[in-house]
Structure formats: C-alpha cells, structure tokens
Amino acid sequence: MMERRTFLGTVGLSVLAAPFAAEGQQAKAPRVGLLGLGSAESSPLFEALRQGLRERGWVEGQNIAFDDRTHVDHHSRLPDVAAELVRLKVDVIVTWGTSTALAANKATRTIPIVTAAGDLVEMGLAASLARPGGNVTGLTTSGRELIGKRIELLKETLPRLARIAVLWYPESRTQPLQLKDAEAAAKSLRLQVRRAEARGPEDLEKVFATIVHERPEALVLFASYMFQAHRLRIVELAARYRLPATFADRSFVEAGGLMSYGPDRKAISRQLASYVDRILKGAKPGDLPIEQPTKFELVINLKTAKALGLTIPPSLLARADEVVQ
Description:
By secondary structure, the chain is α/β, with parallel strands linked by helices. It has two domains: 31-142 and 265-287, Response regulator (Rossmann fold); 144-263 and 296-324, 3-Layer(aba) Sandwich (Rossmann fold), CATH 3.40.50.2300. The protein is 44% helix and 19% strand. It contains 13 helices and twelve strands. It has a seven-stranded mixed sheet, with helices on both faces. Strands 2-1-3-4-5 form a five-stranded parallel sheet, sandwiched between helices. α2 crosses α11 (265-280). The longest helix is centred in the N-terminal third of the chain and has 24 residues, at 2-25. The model is unreliable at 1-25 (pLDDT under 50).
C-alpha cells in the first residue's frame, strides 16, 4: 500500500512540474529591430508592419518582441543606431528608405535585413532581384519610372506647361539618378527644368524664394524622409507661391498638396511582414526574391486645384484612385 501511495505521489509531482519544465524549455521570442529616420510619418508605416505580423500569428508580448529605433533624428546617427541593433542581437532588422538600408547593411552582413528602399541591386545590396544572395531582401521602391509619370500628369493638368522646378534632397544616394530621369522625361515633353536642392528644413524657405525667381509653372518633389517629415511646411510654401505641385506620396495631398502618384506605402509595409514571417520560420534572405510594389495611387486635391485656379481634366479625375474635396 505504501509503495502505491509513493508511486502516485511521484506521478502527481511530475505532472505538476511538467508545465514549469515546458515553460522553461520554450524558445525565446525572436526580436525584430526597427530602423527608421524620425518623423511622425514613419509610425503608421511600422504599425502596418506590426499589423501584418499579427495577421501571421506574431503577437508582441507573446511570441515576438520589437526593438524600436524608428525615430532617428538625422542621417549621421544611422550608423550608430544600426550598430546598436546589432549589439542587441536582434534576429531581423526592418528598415524603410535607402539611407537606413545602407546603414544596416554596413553594420551587419549576417543578420537578415528586410527593407523597402530604392534599387537594391543598383546600390549593391543585392546581387539580383530574383536571387539577392546576401542578407538583404524586401521591396525595391526606387520608382524612377514614376517620376516621368508624375511629370506627365502635371502636363496633362496644365497643357501649356513649359517650365518646372524639381526639388531634391542631395543627402539621398539615389536622387542624382532620379534627377537624370526627371530631366529626360521633361525633355521628351519639351519642358525646361530648374533644379533646386534642400539639405535640411532650414533651407526650405530660402529655396522656395529662389525657385520663384525662375518663374516655374509647377513643382516636382522627389521622395525623401526629410521632405516627408516637413510636408506641412512644403505644402504651405507651394500654396504661398501658387505652385501646382506633384508628390510621390498621398500624405502631401492630404496635407493640401495638389496631386500625388506613387505606391501605397502601407501596403508595402504589410508586404514586408511576409518577409519577416518567412525569415523567422527559417528562410534565408538571400533566397527570397526582391519584389516591386504592385499597387499605385493617383490622389488629387480638388480644393487645392480650385485655390490655384486650375480645372482638373475629367479624364484625369476618372483615373484618380481618390479625390480630396
């Protein structure tokens, strides 16, 4: 009888101990480092990434953790912050933008990097779109062919358009190439181009005042985090100087800009989540083909058009994905 009680007691203790043993043996939750230049605009993009991961079963606080470094205040600090993520031994680094992708890749050649950036092959971050080969994969968002499209949309809006100003950010590694594309597109439409550069928000007022002396009839703005962070100021300056402007992202139009044409940035963030999911499940970044955005949006602000004395052609309105009244 004593032996039976001893046996049952041993079994009972084993059953009680089992959950604690199992808990101790659970794999440590993977850590994802988020790297981005600081602006309020970056938060929705990374939140879309988190949402995409939740849809795939990765829930923060349960089976995944994030080291958030999405508010770096200047390009010069990116290398240090990227190195910090490497020291934290994150399992994956996710970035938005060319500068952040380059900084992350310089900091590590072993930790997988998932990014939405410019031409990853052209920047030397991948061997090819089909077989990246290294530790970087994601989506290429250079959109160089879209620059010409945005200039065409301006010409369609302003049939007598003859002179445009192009505002660019010289700290970006890819924008000199975009300048060439813009000038080639303008030449095909018989437009004169005035280059204007802004290295920081403190330059914007002076740059716009200089631009208007050249008497351009419209403005083309290249995509950059600096411009994105200060889009309200840029939109206000364009309105002050009565410059019809086209942008790469809808947030400028929502802030009062005339029109935008470009990829759906939140959709791109959700696509990035699929890369992170596959890597955390064992896939190698070098084996995951780099994709290109598949959804593009034309957004037009009719209130701004009216303030500028413009009539948007019905054919253009019919093609718009959204019209802001």
